[in-house]
Design goal:
Elements lengths: L1 H4 L7 H13 L4 E6 L4 H12 L4 E6 L6 E10 L7 H4 L2 H10 L13 E5 L6 E4 L7 E6 L12 E7 L7 E2 L14 E4 L12 E9 L5 E6 L6 E4 L7 E5 L1
Length: 242
């Protein structure tokens, strides 16, 4: 099944080992960005299926307060009735994702698949970590012709223990999060996953443009992997998260 879906380039033993090695070698966040990942005929069928789904607004929860955070997108939780489930729910796929992200696979590993839709003027999502609720994430983007200027960038951040006067100080971020354009942010109000209320300096490590057939893989088990999403500028953004 995996050979029907995934670009053969990413399935050779040598390349799989290289992805894993490069991901684990990163000092701050264990992640990989892979382009042209899926067989395009399969991915385009998934995109067509996605267009017919009935999405509902999603909520996210702060782990340490129990407070629900509004997310700026909508979601369908996929199951075996959805196109692509034969891959995404298969043991072979789970073993592959665990290996390249540096995790030990066991038959007790669970998964959650969200088919996502973000409105043309999405506000973005504040800096947070998912390390308290999951060990890894696999994201695939559907967006043909997307440019960095269209927004919706996935941002990765590291914590700097030194508080800098050069940081942009942000408290209680609300509405459209254009403040995420700063490369260094100081805040007492990070999103989910932070376990204290201390002031943090967060330094931008990378930004991933959500272009068609690009995937992002991240290991949350070994590092917190603080991340955010910048606002969108007039285009619908879609994809899936597993």
């Amino acid at each position: 099944m995996i050979y029907d879906w995934v670009n053969p380039y990413y399935l050779s033993d040598e390349f799989v080992d290289n992805i894993r090695e490069d991901l684990l070698a990163k000092p701050d966040i264990k992640y990989a960005v892979l382009d042209n990942f899926f067989n395009t005929s399969k991915l385009d069928q998934l995109i067509e299926h996605h267009k017919n789904l009935q999405f509902s607004e999603e909520k996210d929860r702060r782990s340490h307060t129990g407070e629900w955070l509004p997310y700026d997108g909508a979601v369908v939780f996929a199951d075996r009735s959805n196109f692509g489930s034969e891959l995404l729910l298969s043991k072979e796929w789970h073993q592959y994702c665990c290996y390249i992200s540096g995790l030990q696979w066991t038959d007790k590993i669970g998964t959650e698949i969200k088919l996502r839709y973000h409105k043309p003027e999405a506000d973005g999502f504040w800096i947070h970590t998912d390390s308290n609720i999951r060990d890894m994430v696999f994201i695939c983007y559907f967006n043909k012709g997307w440019k960095a200027s269209d927004g919706g960038l996935l941002q990765l951040w590291r914590v700097d223990e030194t508080l800098s006067s050069a940081s942009t100080k942000i408290e209680n971020p609300k509405g459209r999060l254009d403040c995420l354009n700063s490369k260094r942010i100081q805040t007492k109000t990070p999103g989910g996953g932070f376990v204290d209320s201390q002031t943090h300096d967060l330094v931008l490590v990378d930004q991933i443009v959500p272009v068609y057939n690009r995937v992002f893989i991240c290991n949350f088990k070994d590092m917190p992997a603080y991340h955010s999403v910048t606002p969108s500028n007039g285009k619908v953004r879609t994809g899936f998260v597993q």
